[in-house]
User: Fold Tr-type G domain-containing protein from Penstemon davidsonii.
Amino acid sequence: MDMAITSNPISQITPKVTIFSSKNIEPTKRNSIRNISWLKRQFLGSNLSIKSKSKSSKFTPFRNPVKCSVSEVTETATEKKTQLVRRTDIRNIAIVAHVDHGKTTLVDAMLRQSKVFRDNQVMQERIMDSNDLERERGITILSKNTSITYHDTKINIIDTPGHSDFGGEVERVLNMVEGVLLVVDSVEGPMPQTRFVLKKALEFGHAVVVVVNKIDRPSARPDFVINSTFELFIELNASDEQCDFQVIYASGLRGKAGLSPENLSDDLGPLFETIVRCIPGPQIAKDGVLQMLATNIEYDEHKGRIAIGRLHAGTLRKGMDVKVCSSEDECRFARVSELFVYEKFFRVPTETVEAGDICAVCGVDNIQIGETIADKAEGKPLPAIRVEEPTVRMAFSINTSPFVGRAGKYVTSRNLRDRLYRELERNLAMKVEDGETSDTFIVSGRGTLHITILIENMRREGYEFMVGPPKVINKRVDDKLLEPYEVNVYKRNFL
Assistant:
């Protein structure tokens, strides 16, 4: 469900469905579409073939390597203009998709084939869904980091939620990557959350690789899915280079991928090769001033708050004195006590991290998401992370029933207030305000599921409270009353 505060008057809240056709495209845009190599590959066929030399070895080099369709001319011109260098030994990617399109299962297969685990080690399903609620509900709620190594290239992978209520998790991690794998179901095609995550990726200017997953299903219709995805690119005003995306067909459950639905390799080698060739390495200022944006926060009982993010410039060292800035005028000093990088499925301690890599920093007290860890003398803050506004709010208050204290141990307004405001430290898409009374708090989120997950987590932690009914958040702009609405893409998919 793609929900956003937009300029849609309440008197016209009925979603409009636009049926895509070539007549709706401007002539200049239509001419450019005819000439791109993507359409040539779709209608004229591809001369690429995937054949493994040996079934016993993983990641066998291809006889015909994957030729990425992304243009490199604009990229080179940008590098010369900004005088940045591009690292070739690292790829930072985010895997995005609609709910239940198989991205977490695909990550499992990528981890398994990259030898993250021993051959005799028992590996559970959906290993990235480590949260109890995630495993019970079968959905991803929190973004998580991992990494694999393909030949000499380190690939940092971020698994993201697939529900629009947790879109804030997707929006902030896009600051850490240079490309995304857009996973689309081979039967359903693009869905509402597919539109949302693709829109955000295109706004960041990221390279997109489309993975048509579950291609082994009997009812798979890859041609329809690719055409619908291409139409979605056009509707979102993607550039010609972005529309010329690379397509990979995969079965995450079987751990196979290929350049055509009829000719899958024995492993995910084509997918890894496509990531290396089509996703650019991070652009860095090799001799620049230290800058790292805290994109995620974790907590450890022994290490305290851990800031996770990508190092944009400079070099970060263990024991280094740094400056933590939330704006140009609000800065404080700290020291890095421990430094970690992601290798396989674990955080590994290191002494130095170079620009372009994703790392975890310990020792910075009270660091918040969106703050910048910068050089002590010349550091400047990076632009703050911005996410979509909440769409639904609910009232939280202490339990005033005669049965108070029977369902939990934290029952006072102070306990409730501390827990709700602590949630804001790692949940950028949520807002908390004081209510009309001292015992009431207004919690705003991206949707009812977003707030429901908070309620369930607090209940399991021992908090006892009451909640009111969800209410839609309206907004007045230029004397017009606006409300959130859903973008309907179902009818287009199933015509």
User: Anything to note?
Assistant: The CA atoms of residues 188 and 494 lie 8 Å apart. Confidence is low (pLDDT under 50) at residues 1-64, 71-82, 489-495.
